[in-house]
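User: I'm writing a tutorial on reading structure tokens. Could you give me a worked example: one chain, its sequence, then its tokens, then a sentence or two explaining what the tokens reveal?
Assistant: Sure. Here is the example chain.
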Amino acid sequence: MPELPTGPRSPRPKAGADPTRPPGDGQPPGAESARQARDRARAFLDLHEGRHPVPILDDPGIRAVLLAARRIAIVGASADPGRPSHDVFRVLRDRGFECVPVNPNVREVLGVPAFGTLREAVAATGPFDIVDVFRRSEPCVDHAREAVETGARCLWLQLGIVNWEAARIAHEGGLAVVMDRCTAIELRRLAPDPPDMSG
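And here are its predicted structure tokens:
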């Protein structure tokens, strides 16, 4: 079966270029970004075509995680009402979850003090059930390590985010993994009745 095109092809190296040198080191501009775009496209295809190197939660698993969770760290939460992470923070908080923003660039989100790192948030407030990540794919590996180290139960990468290395780290650390899904959307879709937060 021919390989599906996943994006623009990288330019061929110039005559005399050393093929062992890393992309971007003397290579034409755009060569590295084209490779990254292809890698991202492959990661998304693998996720949505069921080629999972580690287990990813399906709908029943996601529903169970959402119904069992009480505390959610929102990594990349924004104080800007126009940003999706701000809206998701508000929706989850309004549904009764204890949400804590993790973002070194903001002081608070909707009156809740923000922390620079997940480790700081856990040290100050306790462990989280879900670590909900609104970041580019690349930093997710570090967030996965932090989630494992701080005793989280689920690493959740938001819509548009797939990182199989982060998923592997989380899975091997005993966490459930969700990728390319929105907590607020899945809550409305899979658990429309508010979970009991009294326990």
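What the tokens reveal: The first helix runs from residue 31 to 48. DSSP finds seven helices and seven strands in the chain.
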